[in-house]
Amino acid sequence: MNRTQTINYQGKTIFLLDFSNLSAIDEINAVAHEAKAFIHRQAPHSQYTLTNIEGMHFNNQIKDIFVELAKSNKPYVRAGAIVGVTGMKQILFNGIMKLTGRDIKSFSSAEQAKSWLVAQN
Known about the structure:
5-stranded mixed β-sheet, 121 residues
C-alpha cells in the first residue's frame, strides 16, 4: 500500500499521509519526504490533507519531523485533518500546532475527517 496517495471522497480530492503503525524513524522520514515532495508541487492553498498516525510510535525526533513537515506544507494546504491523536500524542500534537501556526483538526475516525474536509472551502 502506498503511504501517500490522493483519494477521491464525495467529489473532492484529499491527499492521504499514512503513518499508521510505523515506528522506525527512517520509515516515518521517508513518508514525510514523499508527502512534502508532492504537496510542494501543488498550487498554494489548494490541498486537503488527511494524516493518519494511528498506532504510530512518537518521540521528540519524530515530533521534529512533523514540525518541519507541517511548517513547510502550510502555504499549500487549504484544510488539514488528522486521525490517531490519543494519549500523549495529544500533548505533542498541541505543541506542534503552536510551533507551526497550523490549525489541523483532530478526529477519531477517517470517515469523520473526510466528511469535515469535503465541507471546507
